[in-house]
Design goal:
Elements (H helix, E strand, L loop, with lengths): L5 H16 L20 E10 L16 E8 L4 E4 L5 H4 L12 H17 L7 E5 L5 H7 L4 E5 L4 H7 L4 E2 L5 H11 L2 E7 L8 H11 E12 L1 H6 L12 E2 L2 H9 L3 E9 L5 E8 L7 H14 L2 H28 L4 E4 L4 H8 L10 E3 L8 E2 L6 E4 H7 L3 E4 L5 H11 L4 E4 L5 E2 L1
Parallel strand pairs: 4-5, 4-7, 5-6, 7-8, 12-13, 12-16, 13-15, 16-17
Antiparallel strand pairs: 1-2, 2-3, 3-9, 8-11, 10-11, 14-15, 17-18
Helix pairs in contact: 3-4, 6-7
């Protein structure tokens, strides 16, 4: 067999090293190269302004806060959407981080589907270990526990304490090579490692992926769920662009990323979580047969991004148009002395409200469930009060804007059943009042 010239081998290895370097990004820096393939020629899509981290909920209205650039870019080489500034993970996922996955019935059901599909697709034995990275309050792991998995969560915030109290063993830490070695020595190898709505958050991908490889069994599977770039563009989901999400994956970009680590995507599913997500099954190269779903998805993406300039320019125009329509609608109500409020306070609503410059004079408050950790606090940036939803049911405001619009059908049914008679505005992908 003809050997590869030494110079060519060195160039190849150098390129891999340079690309892997782009997987380890320092906090507080502006990103100039693609976070997966290292490409320097990134397409600038839209500047959403300087914004506070979406979950840095304010305890007091006059509390000092920090804002960081929020620019959205696209790599034509590997089809990765990405932002260009890294905020320190410790500032984003702080000890008193207020998000909980287990308080929303709709989300609980969607998280349980991860374990149900994994059981169907992956051969498991009694007491197989499942490790969930960024496990929050342990909701996803409860799904695996139903099938007699041993479960272990990794969660850096104080939400870990809630999980432990609820019977889901959880290590309060960020996940990296050091944490992975401790897990391997204490708990052994994992049959499944999951990362749902987390894999796009991590600036140091090298340490994360190498850590996953340390704890996975030989035929172990890494299941990641992330916002899907194609859905984000199609449904104008600019509200899901925030500092926690450094990357917005396509399957092309994920396959390219895992190749650097001798890992291989063998199956893919499209799920409704968070307005459209991609669930990807990855294992050591050659351990599993690659399914047709992977081949079909790559073809669809290739066709979709063949005319990426037009699609992404239209995406930007749709964002600007949506902002104008929202402001116009709210102002029409306010001029007539009507009350406008928000329903639900997901992280994504911070981007939406700050970009559209919707102040507390325009939106009186945001109504949240009684179990929310955000109650009696204020939205970062716009400083809109977050109150118990009981106030909304008592007042029956003229217009309620559903900020968790991606779960609109389920939420509207619940709200109507509870007695909400207000007109409800669905802001995206097209403004609509029901």
């Amino acid at each position: 067999m003809k050997s590869i010239p030494q110079a060519q081998q060195e160039k190849f290895l150098k390129n891999i090293f340079m690309n892997k370097e782009s997987h380890n990004i320092k906090s507080g820096t502006t990103i100039k190269n693609c976070q997966v393939c290292g490409n320097k020629d990134l397409m600038k899509i839209i500047n959403l302004g300087d914004q506070p981290p979406c979950d840095s909920i304010l305890e007091k209205k006059n509390q000092k806060e920090f804002k960081y650039p929020l620019n959205f870019l696209f790599c034509k080489n590997c089809f990765l959407g990405q932002i260009d500034f890294v905020v320190s993970p410790k500032k984003l996922f702080f000890k008193k981080y207020p998000y909980r996955s287990g308080i929303t019935k709709t989300l609980v059901e969607k998280l349980y589907s991860t374990s149900e599909m994994a059981k169907k697709k992956i051969k498991i034995t009694s007491n197989s270990l499942c490790v969930d990275i960024g496990s929050n309050d342990g909701t996803l792991l409860k799904g695996f526990k139903r099938f007699n998995f041993k479960v272990l969560g990794i969660e850096p915030t104080n939400i870990a304490k809630i999980a432990n109290e609820d019977g889901i063993e959880t290590i309060q830490s960020f996940f990296d090579i050091k944490t992975a070695n401790k897990i391997y020595l204490t708990y052994g190898s994992a049959r499944i490692v999951t990362a749902t709505n987390v894999f796009a958050h991590v600036p140091d991908l090298s340490s994360l992926i190498e850590g996953i490889k340390i704890i996975l069994e030989k035929k172990g599977v890494f299941i990641s769920e992330s916002h899907y770039l194609v859905d984000l563009i199609k449904t104008v989901q600019y509200d899901s662009i925030y500092h926690e999400h450094l990357k917005y994956y396509s399957l092309h970009s994920l396959i390219k990323l895992f190749k650097y680590y001798d890992l291989e995507v063998f199956d893919v599913e499209f799920i409704k979580n968070y307005g459209g997500s991609i669930r990807v099954y990855t294992a050591s190269k050659g351990e599993y047969k690659i399914k047709k779903t992977v081949i079909e998805c790559l073809k669809v993406e290739k066709n979709f991004f063949d005319n990426s300039n037009k699609k992404l320019n239209d995406f930007r125009k749709n964002i600007v148009r949506n902002k104008k329509e929202i402001i116009k609608t709210i102002n029409q109500y306010k001029r007539k002395g009507k009350k406008v409020v928000g329903i639900g306070c997901p992280g994504r609503c911070s981007t939406f409200l700050n970009y559209c410059n919707i102040t507390s004079k325009m939106m009186t408050y945001i109504a949240e469930q009684s179990t929310s950790l955000k109650l009696d606090k204020f939205l970062p940036g716009m400083k809109i009060p977050i109150v118990n939803e009981k106030i909304m049911f008592d007042e029956q405001p003229d217009l309620a804007i559903i900020l968790s619009w991606h779960y609109q059908e389920e939420i509207i049914k619940i709200l109507r059943k509870k007695g909400l008679k207000s007109k409800i505005l669905i802001p995206l992908p097209e403004l609509k009042i029901v």
